[in-house]
Amino acid sequence: MAQSTLDSMPGASTGTVVITEPLNFWGGKRVKPREEKNAEPVFEPATGRVLCQMVPCGAEEVDEAIQSAYAAYQKWSKMAGMERARVMLEAARIIRERREKIAKLEAINNGKTITEALVNIDISWKSIEYYAGLAGTLAGQHIQLPGGAFAYSRREPLGVCVGIGAWNFPFVIATMKSAPALACGNAIVYKPSPMAPVTAVILAEIYKEAGVPDGLFCVVQGGAETGSLLCHHPKVAKVSFTGSVPTGKKVMEMSAKSVKQVTLELGGKSPLIIFKDCELENAVKGALMANFLTQGQVCCNGTRVFVQREIMPQFLEEVVKRTKAIPVGDPLLGSTRMGPLISKPQLEKVLGFVSQAKKEGARVLCGGDPFVPSDPKLKGGYFMSPCVLGTSNTLVNGGTAHAQSALFFNTQSLSTDNCRDDMTCVKEEIFGPVMSVLPFDTEEEVIQRANNTTFGLASGVFTRDISRAHRVAASMEAGTCFINNYNINPIELPFGGYKMSGFGRENGQVTIEYYSQLKTVVVEMGDVESLF
Ligand SMILES: NC(=O)c1ccc[n+]([C@@H]2O[C@H](COP(=O)([O-])OP(=O)(O)OC[C@H]3O[C@@H](n4cnc5c(N)ncnc54)[C@H](O)[C@@H]3O)[C@@H](O)[C@H]2O)c1
Ligand SMILES: O=CCc1c[nH]cn1
Fold this sequence. Notes:
Blueprint: H1 4-7, E1 24-26, E2 29-31, E3 40-43, E4 50-54, H2 59-76, H3 81-97, H4 99-110, H5 114-135, E5 142-144, E6 150-157, E7 160-164, H6 170-183, E8 187-191, H7 200-210, E9 217-219, H8 224-232, E10 236-242, H9 245-256, E11 261-265, E12 271-274, H10 280-291, E13 304-308, H11 312-324, H12 344-359, E14 363-366, E15 387-390, H13 401-408, H14 424-427, E16 434-440, H15 443-450, E17 460-462, H16 466-475, E18 482-483, E19 502-503, H17 511-514, E20 516-523
Parallel strand pairs: 7-8, 7-10, 8-9, 10-11, 12-13, 12-17, 13-16, 15-16, 17-18
Antiparallel strand pairs: 1-2, 3-4, 5-6, 6-20, 11-19, 14-15
The protein binds nicotinamide-adenine-dinucleotide (NAD) and the ligand O=CCc1c[nH]cn1.
Nicotinamide-adenine-dinucleotide is lined by residues 164-169, 191, 193-194, 223-224, 227-228, 231, 242-244, 247, 250-251, 265-268, 299, 429, 431, 457, 502.
């Protein structure tokens, strides 16, 4: 049974898959929902068809999963790091071997293109390999004390951790949380997003096949209520959350009641700053990578694109030309570069942001409309054309933008900048394929404007001036700054937010700190000197 969903993948095409197997996993096996009455349909975004039913877990099921994780933790935490590493490496190997099938299922459930889904699955097995490599290195310190006494510290796991994930990177988020957690000797109960529930259970089966104790990686399905049960459970030591700021605040509040450790990976509205001395073609490519991966549904996207005024016309001409050329359509075709958004409400929300932007004075330079692919089976899908919002007087009235630059950008009185910092589309996270382009004049000004947000997940700068690049990177109030590229997030690099984009880190060595704790052991070698 474990393999049947994946086994149907090689021949599967968009609009053909229906999943009926249970999506919960604990005690080493898939578990049927106790009652089906609260089942929610999960849609295939490319077609609008029902892919499966997601049945939320109630209190008893959550408790069963956590008890099973706790039992597994008792065994796993006593194993040496090298022994854990061996099992994890086997899990990474199995994922690598099945990468095409898992990627296909991910693309069907999420709508991201198969090309991106394959990259995501590769990040996932690399994450497990990376933390397997660190598992054997976990160690404490020896500290000599006066009189022959000494102390040592032990790096110990936390216990049962909970992972709560967003829908945009379902398999990646499940591995990014479980890999460091397991390397440190913890067990983890993972709740995927109710909109993307199908691949977390595949990961659970793979860990089991690789040899983890039954219960070590559990999957409970559900939405807010199930998430809240997890955050309140007394046997849970830590909650690692990926999602929106409003939900993150709730998770923190609930976890505070029993003083659970928390990692929050939240949303963003990141700035990408393009100076006039940049290599323009790379800057344009960077802006597209910063905005349109996974249909723009990426937390660290650089959606506020600040372009130095002198190069705005050339930049816009090129960025609009390339955006218009993005092939939108069937996510399972190798030639597609943009699939559907995750859901109908998300599509409507994003289109609503575009309408609002127009009302507030922005000009749609391209896209921003519902898109109906020519393939009849995709008629019910949640597609839209990728959108660039910019300045009204570029690329209009015929003539090239370049020719118009003297008129509209070099003469103060004629410059009409329709994307402004106070617009909704520039202030709020849209989470769709919408790029807002804003002009700027000086470095000092753009740094101030870039940081003028409550978010702080990522940032980027394109310039050939090496000193400026590092000066700007140091000034950004954000967890990451990309210089002359964007959205490069290999597993070795710490990832996380400043300000309201969250705290704690995922990826990189530092994440070991967030899934372990130090115990100090003090050893007396002589007699006790008592004051009493
Ligand atoms: N920083 C990062 O690494 C990162 C990565 C991916 C997505 N995100 C962010 O996630 C958001 C999009 O994802 P989303 O729409 O799934 O976010 P969301 O906050 O709506 O949901 C995230 C998860 O929280 C669960 N949840 C909802 N209410 C809950 C509650 N009261 N208690 C416990 N759990 C609850 C959901 O079921 C889901 O699993 C965006 O803001 C995006 O920027 C951040
Ligand atoms: O949506 C965010 C995706 C991401 C990239 N690296 C870590 N999370």
